[in-house]
Amino acid sequence: MESKTEKRAKYINSLLLGRKRDIKYEMSNTQPGLVNTEAEEYIDIDQGNDQSEKEDESVIPMIQELRTETTESKEETLTDILDCYNSNFLHDFNPQHHIPYLDFFLQHTLPPQMLALDASQPWMVYWLVNSLYIMQNGNIGDELRSRIKDKFIVQSSVSPFSALPRPASFGPFAGGIMQYPHLASNYAAILSLVLCEDEEVLSKIDKDYVYEWLMSLKLPDGSFETCEKCGETDTRGVYCALSIASLLGIMSEELVENSLDFLIKCQAYEGGFGGRPFEEAHGGYTFCALASLVIIIDYLHGAKKTLNNFIDVDMLLRWISARQDNEAFGLNGRSNKLVDGCYSFWIGGTGSILEAYGYTNPIDKEKLRAYILQCCQSDEFPGLRDKPGMRSDFYHTNYVLLGLCCVDSQFSLNNENHSTFSIEATLRNSKDIPGVAKINPIYGLPCSIIAKVYSWLSQEDKEKNENAI
């Protein structure tokens, strides 16, 4: 029986290269381990030569694949994906199939087995509410908005810092009640509050205190600890800190000092970015690094400088292109890894940011769209998933949906107002698509929300200037 490697070799030789014979190489007796090109032996399959049926230990195939757990998983995954492509499954996005899933978990207490996610409460709120906001075109209801605001106000006031005399304000935020503030929790909590579209609530966030807290996490190399004295330090922390500062209007040169250099050093030889300098490039870290870079560059230089002045954009584009699987059409986060629906945003959003700033988006959007619609949905279970064979979850529902928004849009920058808030998205089909919104890929929020934040911050700056006169 032929092995998979032999079948692939025959396919390449006969159909792709037009050959009708196998090519095998003998090992040189004089130089073990080296291929002796003078000892080539051509075996004509069509003539039924007896030699073709003999297994000579000294003859090895041209291509010998190393079998690993990853290669076996990839073959199994690809089989499941091809089954999805060959089926008559959902080819359109139907938000009504997924909305009950989001509603259920927003209206009910989570089961006891999810206690392990107690410190991730702000994340779960953001994943569910952002998905619902996009699928329902912003109609999430006043009752849900009120519950979100109450949750984070209480969570911020009942904490190790609750003794501080700040009765009229709140923030920073922790993952749960009586927990210490964490950069990732703050990021998710503030995004959730922004989705409530309530300027009054956002104005009650103690911005000065949040700023002091961010500065307490800042390290001399420009990175940020995610939590005081014990947090990780990588590009995720930089992104969370700068996103918070940007959305609250508390950016400063002091806050971003050395951060640009730290991010530049994180670009790996592959083209993508690692979590820290000299680490392997990864999809999530790359998104965080690029989004942080444009926030800093826009704040410090505006339109005077571009990404090309700081990083190798061509290398980054090549690396992004290599993340799209030629057979599965989905995206992976690292070299030789499996496709995963969440990278539709972590990598897809990275391509969208580059597209907005005038670079070519190297992702084949039509193929990625096919992967999202046919492989990340299930007719049996609502919600969006990693890949066929996996169950849907909050995290993948949000980021796969954001990825779908990216592939269904063209991105550009409003040059009259050159800032991260001015990214514009145009739906590729020039019409509204049910369940898909125009998003700002830097923040992972709808453009309509970001426009309101920009308006509030502009009005706040205007009032400050008037009071200063």
TrEMBL record:
Belongs to the protein prenyltransferase subunit beta family. It catalyses: L-cysteinyl-[protein] + (2E,6E)-farnesyl diphosphate = S-(2E,6E)-farnesyl-L-cysteinyl-[protein] + diphosphate. Its EC number is 2.5.1.58. Heterodimer of an alpha and a beta subunit. It comes from the Eukaryota. Signal peptide: none annotated. This is Protein farnesyltransferase subunit beta. Residues 93-432 form the Prenyltransferase alpha-alpha toroid domain. InterPro entries: FTB, PGGT1B-like, Prenyltrans, Terpenoid_cyclase/PrenylTrfase. Catalyzes the transfer of a farnesyl moiety from farnesyl diphosphate to a cysteine at the fourth position from the C-terminus of several proteins. The beta subunit is responsible for peptide-binding. Keywords: Metal-binding, Prenyltransferase, Repeat, Transferase, Zinc. Its cofactor is Zn(2+). GO terms for cellular component: protein farnesyltransferase complex. One of its GO terms (biological process) is prenylation. One of its GO terms (molecular function) is zinc ion binding. Binds 1 zinc ion per subunit.
